[in-house]
Specification:
This protein has six helices and five strands. With 239 residues, the chain is of the alpha+beta class. Strands 1-4-5-3-2 form a five-stranded mixed β-sheet, sandwiched between helices. Strand 2, helix 5 and strand 3 form a beta-alpha-beta unit. It is elongated and about 160 Å long. The protein starts with 21 loop residues before the first helix and ends in a 6-residue tail after the last strand.
């Protein structure tokens, strides 16, 4: 005899009273943890707000610059478009070097080496000369350095003809540059024959023949002494 038995159905699994979720985690946090979270969220929002404000400020600055540029060029007429570059450069005016040299040579050749200047020179304290009609205070003031030396010509090692031409060119350049006081170094003649200052005697004669020279005197010891002259030039007349 066969007896049928009732099959046992699987029992339903009982649900837990609470399932873990985000809300569960928050509820499980302590109060100090919640305070830290709020602070972090607040800081994050503040940084985001700063970045947004910076972005807006930069955009506004660019817009303002663009408007200012447009206002500045509003009345400017654009140049006509061209697909060729201008490669032609204006050449500077040619300097008549040869003419300048010729003029200097002509002026130099007009200076005499044989003019008698012994009676013209003052030799009280040191060698000096001034043009007639000028105040007698010119030489003392020149010696004291009332006019500062602005240019110097060194004639060491030059032959007589070279020194003469160099002196004429130097004086002309000084007048052109409106220089009033210069120093001319002629040397003491220690390296010449018989130790005589050949150039010194020549320079004295040349200077008294130049109209632009008002006066000169022997330099002070710290300015060259007997090997140099301090020369006062005429002022340039401005038109």
């Amino acid at each position: 005899m066969c007896i049928a038995r009732r099959s046992q159905a699987p029992q339903p699994v009982a649900w837990r009273r609470s399932m873990p979720n985000a809300g569960w985690k928050i509820k499980g946090m302590r109060l100090d943890d919640l305070g830290g979270l709020r602070a972090a969220l607040k800081q994050l929002a503040l940084e985001r707000s700063k970045r947004e404000a910076k972005r807006r400020a930069q955009a506004l600055a660019k817009e303002v610059q663009a408007r200012l540029f447009l206002d500045a060029v509003r009345d400017v007429t654009p140049l006509p478009a061209s697909d060729k570059a201008d490669t032609k450069k204006s050449k500077p005016e040619p300097i008549a070097k040869q003419r300048q040299r010729d003029e200097a040579q002509a002026l130099a050749s007009s200076l005499s080496d044989d003019i008698d200047i012994e009676r013209l020179l003052q030799t009280d304290e040191s060698l000096s000369w001034k043009r007639d009609g000028l105040s007698h205070q010119i030489i003392p003031r020149l010696r004291r350095g009332q006019w500062s030396v602005k240019a110097q010509l060194d004639l060491h090692g030059k032959r007589v003809d070279e020194a003469r031409e160099a002196l004429v060119g130097f004086l002309a350049d000084a007048i052109k540059r409106e220089i009033r006081c210069v120093r001319i170094v002629h040397g003491k003649g220690l390296g010449s024959v018989n130790k005589e200052p050949v150039l010194k005697n020549k320079v004295l004669r040349w200077l008294v023949q130049r109209e632009e020279v008002l006066a000169f005197c022997q330099a002070r010891p710290n300015d060259g002494g007997s090997g140099a002259l301090i020369v006062l030039l005429t002022a340039t007349r401005k038109s």
